[in-house]
Amino acid sequence: MELFTNQVLAGIATGAIYACMALAVVMIYQAIDHLNFAQGEMAMFSTFISWQLMQWGIPYWAAFIVTLALSFVAGIAIERILFKPLAKAPVLTNVAGFIALFAIINSSAGLIWDFTIKQYPTPFGSAPFLGSQLISTHQAGMIGVTVLLLLGLYFFFQYTRIGLAMRAAASVPESARLVGINTSWMIALGWGMATAIGAIAGMLIAPVVFLEPNMMGGVLIYGFAAAVLGGLTSPFGAVVGGFLVGIFENLAGTYIPGVGNELKLPIALALIISVLVVKPAGLFGRHIVKRV
Amino acid sequence: MLFGRTLRTIALATAAATLTSGAALAQKKYDTGASDTEIKIGNIMPYSGPASAYGIIGKTEDAYFKMINDKGGINGRKINFVTYDDAYSPPKAVEQVRKLVESDEVLAVFNPLGTPSNSAIQKYLNAKKIPQLFVATGATKWNDPKNFPWTIGWQPSYQSEAQIYAKWLLKEKPDAKIAILYQNDDFGKDYLKGTKDGLGAKASSMVILEESYEVSEPSIDGHIVKIKAANPDVLLIYATPKFAAQTIKKTAELSWKPLQILTNVSISVGSVMKPAGFEASQGVLSAAYAKDSTDPQWNNDPGMKKWNEFVDKYMPGADKTDTAMVYGYGAASTLAKVLEMCGDDLTRANLMKQAASLKDFAPDTLLPGVKINTSATDFAPIAQLQMQRFKGEKWELFGEIISGDVPTE
Amino acid sequence: MSAAEDVVTEAPAVEAVPKRAMTLGTGTSLVVLAALLIAPVFVKNFIIFQMTMLLIYGLAVLALNILTGGSGQFSLGQSAFYAVGAYTTAVLMEHFNINYALTLPIAGVVCFGFGFLFGQPALRLSGVYLALATFALATAMPQLLKLNFLEHWTGGVQGLVVTKPDAPFGLPMSQDMWLYYFTLVVVIAIYIFSVNLLRSRSGRAFMAIRDNEIAASAMGVDVALYKTLAFGVSAAITGIAGSLGAIAVQFVAPDSYTITLAISLFLGMVVGGVGWLPGSIIGAAFIIFVPNMAEGISKGLSGAVFGVLLFLVIYLVPHGARQVAILGQQLAGKLRKN
Predict the structure, then answer these.
(1) What is the 8-class DSSP label of residue A290?
(2) What is the complex's ipTM, to 2 decimals?
């Protein structure tokens, strides 16, 4: 029983990583209606920028804010320069564009900062949290930040004009244009916000997994899985999905005899697919009815 | 994955001597890839893809041969080092090696990296009788001169290193309850096998848990929690640097203090022990054959001074904590030594013969006492290691230099 | 979020490509065929090997094209089928001493079954969900190949070495050249089969599903059957490509069939033109040669150079090589009128 509780707690701690990334995934999905394969790399690059700022002697929180601002601007710039010209191209061509962006960012980061792992500071410390050694204060802080972000996003999409406009622009672009929403800029704004959220995710994840150019590869797969499980249209679902994936993965690795440990990722993914077969829009996603 | 670490170069001092004595004796003989002015050497490295961290080895070797050429080359011939990216993909490795052999027409393929890539090209190179020199992987199978006379290893094999740990445990902690954390690939599995072979009959009673992880996992905290629950008192960490650092850090966060033994692949002070935290790293055991570039005890070591000068001049701006640069320097200097021994007989057969005739060669970057020896029946150049313990901010060597040759099955 | 259901008129993910536009004219086909037949006589073995790989990847891209361009289903998991084909051949050749040529149909059948089964749960998924499911399959495959209890057959993490066949009947040609012609025959046979498949009743059913699933089912197309069938056929062809790849490379290992391969095949399809079968070979050329070019330009930044080149291609021709072919056709048409 103690092992079970421990694995659940450890799963929550790891799940916080996935939840954070899943939020960024949902954000971009809300804005552009598909997944951005380069999102993890963009988050990694932002994290490196904040690391570089700290190396130059800028204090943590200042570096944090500056990185957020830079990431926001960079996200908008990437959309305007690289993807706006592809707006009329087929979806699959856009996906190829994401893959190209992935290659460019990963390779540049490797050249600029090398591939050796780097220590990344945490503002929350890494002492045991509430007496539990399984969750450190950093991980608790991470969960806290994720929840704050979630609340922020909820209010943004539910109650602000711009948030509503953004949702409209993504789901029914033609009607949105008719009511005077500048859909093109809504997409750019979505890119900016998703990049900034990705930067937060990266800066929170780095103290746990260490900073290096390939650090987000695995995280992004889990982030996608979590977002899809929870429902790509629901920030709340994404966060719940993240924790569920983290917990389930640990339990599969511990309790499924024989292949459980070797195959915990495939087993977790298979479970997600089974959930999708039953609930195609994810646990908390809106069901979308297609018009013929 | 792949590798170990370091070595390097006394070759230059002796170069002048052999030039005068050897040149007059032998008649000039060449195979494809060698001439009066040039020796063409091929190499493949993962400059892109999942193992791109190791690409720096190829860059170091390239820089090393530039240095050699600036100093006049080897026996008057310049080294033309052609290196291609295989992205750590075996099919790509085959394509690139065939390009090196059939299109670039190199004399030999040197230090190709990774067990999968080397396995993919081994049969082809042996069929064509082209030397596959000093491969950058610690699998045991490269020491097999009978079946693969054109393939030779370089670093100590993973299995022999694991056996050293096993024997140490049998002697020092015969009642240990051992947990093994290993990477689920050829690298991790070789260590697992070596450990069990070394423990022999006691393996089943001493090893209480074998836990594997995948490189694609972002964090391996869950595995550590599971291992701790089994309550072992020895933890063997057969993981690549990032995961090794995570393991050491996590065990400390759990206030858990097993005796930790760490693979030689991940002993870099700068890129493992420091990120994991020096406090958390105290008392960790490992074994080494090369000097650590960030360890202050080598500050006045003549060999490491040469290495530092080389890096400053030929790789300015490079991250000196990266052990791959010590490795590349050592491997390249071994090749330089062999080419110099070849004199004017630059045939592939002679190159292989000389590579198998190294006697007590000690590159700049190897630990004092560790020497390279090869023979017609021994294709494992580095077979010695010394145990070490992490104390303060550096490794402290202890015990004898141990030879750990594992015969190929 | 609100519980209200959104009603969306969804544009088809894949553009409709009329079936005639999916192939080449007879004249062009013959010219390409002649070039493929004669070329090896004039080049080195290494180039022949590269051309063999080109045909093999071309075949794998073609298989994806049938799935995506034909039936509108998206897959990032083709590397899994490729791996199953490759391992089937390697295991049959090395453990059972079965002739390499005979392993191809077996690999095809095994992969057809595998693809057909995988198509079942995939039926309920579309768009990003299907992308994730196939992506999961591609990620899982190397781990499955490493499993301990399969190690006796698969060689585990160490992989298996495959023996390259000599030319039969004492034909005076190198192993590479023989394998090239052997591959060429297989590829042409499958290409002709694919073209006919897409022109057949099944092909029309695929395209009806691609263009509008609901309308297709209203017209009496058994959507579930044809969707899984498309998966099965695509997997079978990919598996045969994998078999040929294993023989050409002479080695199989889990590291050969990672998600990177699936992504490459996907890029090959986009660059060649989704739904245009002849584009597959152009796409394959892109994924084989452009990384080499990128490396030639800058070793440290080869990934970045590759990304930039890929961006250039999709800016210039967002519809891939098909767009170039259509332009060429129009140009030729104009010239003829003049």
Answers:
(1) E
(2) 0.87
